[in-house]
């Protein structure tokens, strides 16, 4: 786990440096917009998704520079989704990663626009020749990210999540579907996008997608557990919100112990998917434990 | 002008039919999101940008199917920007194209998400092989649209526009820059993207870009004049807002007559850019008159 944490931190630093160079400078009359984009995308964060992309890519021999740019695009999409999720009309949250959210640190209109611009940057990064010399590969990456981020992926999941809050009741099937879309789609893209870069076969792709699917669900289940058990200080974001909002979650349906049990079983399953890669998959295996044990 | 209006309407219909097939169906638990996307993108609208793309493309012999898909992508970006512009934290508008805006017809959170998902769909459409058999061409289209729509284009212009409202004072240079980004960038993409599809030379591209630049400015100047002179009923959106918000516009700086004069001179210049295409450019020339004379 120690080596894992070192690698995680190293990956986060590399992505932050690369993103810093890719995002617009905060100068000129539109400095406020660029500054808000940078505040959101370059601030503290574990950068788990980029780490997964880098590790999955190494496993199948993908080129580092391409992986780094894909990681930056993923982080832009992730950051934009957090900005919009935190808006008063959505989750209405003042705190994110221990700092004021973008609409608090700037203003609501700038938050909407900074999110919009970060989404555009993600596709701009993928489309540029620096990502991959082959235009066909670039257009595949764009298409997959657009699907993962859109109405049938992340944004659709966010909408479902909101309706779960409004309805207050849902079965485990709907919650699973919601979270597969909301957090799962982008995590799945992180792990499976590298396959587009290489000649890795269908088997590797299926294995990585299965792994990503399970990991995404674990991530969300642990999120629900932390929201129920953690403190705001520990989390760096407001705790206890799900129950106050009367929201259907894995915890509200399965109970804390049931949710923990589900996460543990998914963790075993996620690791099984990696079996074909042998020892090489050690980092991704540890990522499962990390996500399972995280306290924030 | 009569033939022009017929062609404009025909283009609008074709784009609406194509978009209807490309947007997610409004069924399943996330129906509300898809329904809001459709409400915004398939509702009434003149579809001027798609018309420009189709006409510019014909001028240089671009393939119709590719033009139609590019038009759909443009309309998705345009629709998403209108949804977000209308939000309470932005322009706070209840009325658009004579109908309740998305956050009124649905709710604010759905409006944010429908805009986000429409942006993703735009890039998904461009990235798919149906747009063009060559992946390199597709990735070029994605990159150009992302730049036109992002922080240095449409979204950046929208941010500047907001700061113009807050400051209440600005010189004509800043207003021109703002509008070049806010409305100009997407209009420029509409006219110049077809060049990517063909072997048309640098000269044709420069001519079309010059034309698009002038047309974009005319569009915005006329918008400012209509806001100052038109009625809410005529416009299908709230009139007189610029003055009430103390916003710096072409009209507040140049006066109504000065703004009209500026638009007329830009119209002559726009037509000059088309000279190299001869009679073939008749429809685009008429588009200039149409934009200059529009009452809504």
UniProtKB/TrEMBL annotation, chains A, B:
Database matches in PROSITE patterns: POLYPRENYL_SYNTHASE_1, POLYPRENYL_SYNTHASE_2
Cofactors: Mg(2+)
Keyword set includes Metal-binding: yes
Molecular function via GO: metal ion binding; prenyltransferase activity
Entry keyword set: Isoprene biosynthesis, Magnesium, Metal-binding, Transferase
Protein's UniProt keywords contain Metal-binding: yes
Annotated GO biological process: terpenoid biosynthetic process
One GO cellular component, as annotated: cytoplasm
Any single Pfam family the record assigns to this protein: polyprenyl_synt
InterPro entries, A to Z: Isoprenoid_synthase_dom_sf, Polyprenyl_synt, Polyprenyl_synt_CS, Prenyl_diphosphate_synthase
Lineage top rank: taxon: Bacteria
UniProt similarity note: Belongs to the FPP/GGPP synthase family.
NCBIfam families membership: FPPsyn
Name assigned to this protein: Polyprenyl synthetase family protein
Species this protein is from: Marinicauda algicola
């Amino acid at each position: 786990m120690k080596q894992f944490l070192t690698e995680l931190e190293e990956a986060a630093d590399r992505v932050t440096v690369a993103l810093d160079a890719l995002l617009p400078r905060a100068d000129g009359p539109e400095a406020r917009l660029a500054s808000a984009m940078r505040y959101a995308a370059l601030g503290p964060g574990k950068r788990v998704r980029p780490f997964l992309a880098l590790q999955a890519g190494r496993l199948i021999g993908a080129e580092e520079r391409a992986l780094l740019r894909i990681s930056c695009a993923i982080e832009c999409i992730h950051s934009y989704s957090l900005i919009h999720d935190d808006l008063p009309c959505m989750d209405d949250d003042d705190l994110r990663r221990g700092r004021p959210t973008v609409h608090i640190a700037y203003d609501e209109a700038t938050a909407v626009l900074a999110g919009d611009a970060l989404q555009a940057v993600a596709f701009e990064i993928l489309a540029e020749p620096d990502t991959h010399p082959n235009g066909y590969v670039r257009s595949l990456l764009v298409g997959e990210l657009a699907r993962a981020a859109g109405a049938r992926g992340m944004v659709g999941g966010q909408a479902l999540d909101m309706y779960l809050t409004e309805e207050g009741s849902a079965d485990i099937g709907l919650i699973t579907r919601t979270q597969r879309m909301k957090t799962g789609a982008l995590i799945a893209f992180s792990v499976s996008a590298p396959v587009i870069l290489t000649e890795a076969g269908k088997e590797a792709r299926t294995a990585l997608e299965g792994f990503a699917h399970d990991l995404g669900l674990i991530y969300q289940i642990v999120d629900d557990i932390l929201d129920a058990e953690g403190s705001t200080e520990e989390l760096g974001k407001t705790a206890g919100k799900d129950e106050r909002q009367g929201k259907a979650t894995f915890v509200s349906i399965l109970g804390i112990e049931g949710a923990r049990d589900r996460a543990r079983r998914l963790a075993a399953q996620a690791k099984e998917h990696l079996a074909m890669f042998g020892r090489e998959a050690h980092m991704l295996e540890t990522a499962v434990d990390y996500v399972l044990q995280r306290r924030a």
